[in-house]
Batch of 3 targets.
Target 1
Amino acid sequence: MKTKIIITSIIILIIILGFNVTSLKINKQNDGDWPVELIGVSSISVSKSQFESWVETYEACWSDGDHTWCGVPVWRVAAMVDDPEPEDYSFNEELAAEGYIVKLTSWDGWVTELQISDVAHNDNGYIIANTIDGEELPEFTPRDRPSYPLHLRGEDVFSPNTVGGIIKIELVSIGGNNPPEIPEIRGPSNGKTGTSYTYYFSTSDPEENNVYYYIEWGDGSNSDWYGPYTSGNEKSFSHTWTSDDKYNIRIKAKDTFNEESDWNSLEVTMPKYKFLNSPIFCKFFELLKFFNLPLSH
Ligand SMILES: [Ca+2]
Ligand SMILES: [Ca+2]
């Protein structure tokens, strides 16, 4: 009897937990909702009605040929948090002249970054839309991409920048963009000619922009720009040197805005005479040293 009760309890528990996991998944699939976080010099949790009041003041519309998207120009939204006093409406021209990036994040993780110099005073080019054909945005576009609550559209917005499901708008790199750190190199400093060796490279970007790597292997072969990769993650690349020599591996990094880091380098030796590095020769050399016989190695 007791066992029956325990088994029934376990089954009920599993059913309850199972339902919870399912509802958790559904929630995860759509986290796009108000308030939308607006972060800059000051910060605002923007409510739906607050955004609609901005639309009343600054409404801009753009038609993609099939549909008309309306909302607020990006620079007018940036203006709400570009001064210490939030929602003061005036656009901080001085701050814009120094340069910063407007970073738009969707609830599905997609990020689009815009230079303020591209969006400033550009009313129809970059619009943060909250309606389509006069209606509230749908949850998803016909291509199953997030749309509600806010969607970036406009005559200067092209794929993949047409980010929807925007839940966070940030002004980053205020005072200008910075290049990634000098990349670090990890890997063997000597080896055998004709063998492939793997080297690990990493860098971080102060603004967490995506990064690209450019590698010179020292033998005249260069990589093109590899990337984009997430800032802060290690990447590996392999190379084979085909003749005996000393080589200088050089690497630099750049971010999505083409700001380049300085070079880092690592000297690699591929033996001039392979037998000098062979284990048998080394044993033989040690033996000669033991008997005090002269030989340079
Ligand atoms: Ca302002
Ligand atoms: Ca950067």
Target 2
Amino acid sequence: MPIKEGKRYCINHPSARMNRTGTFKALVNVEGNAADGTINPQSGLVVMPFVCEECGYLEMYVADKTHQDKK
Ligand SMILES: [Zn+2]
């Protein structure tokens, strides 16, 4: 999905923001826990999914590349 000024937009709706899902997800079995910061990045690919509420389009970024979303 395109990122404009740190905000993510739907590829189908250029004016619609993509909303993060509540938690990080993993494409494979990740060891550790995101809540307490014990994720082992070597155990799998940690991703941040985003969803467009208008069309349901789902896209994701690798979590460790999206520093602007870290709390
Ligand atoms: Zn959309």
Target 3
Amino acid sequence: MKSLKQYNRDLKTACSRSDRCAGCGTYIGMGTADRKCERCAPTERVLYGTRKDNEDWQEEIISTNPAVFDKAKAWAKEQGFDRFRIDEIDLSTPPDFTKAIQ
Ligand SMILES: [Zn+2]
């Protein structure tokens, strides 16, 4: 029989691989190994995809939910997307719009 300490350690390991924030343990739903809650990781991950016949700059946002990136990618492939890119947007600093204005 496992000790309570061992049980808790196993639980923590299992959770960090699935549905809890790697930083604080907050429940955040099914995710990947290094997933963190918004408080611990103030970045938003965005999955972009580009359709087969389109140019690189014509990429479209596929998903902003890292937990479903794999599924979204599989779906997008069926829709004709053949290039993918994951970008992290830092939400802790406001976007610098002056760079956008030429
Ligand atoms: Zn957290």
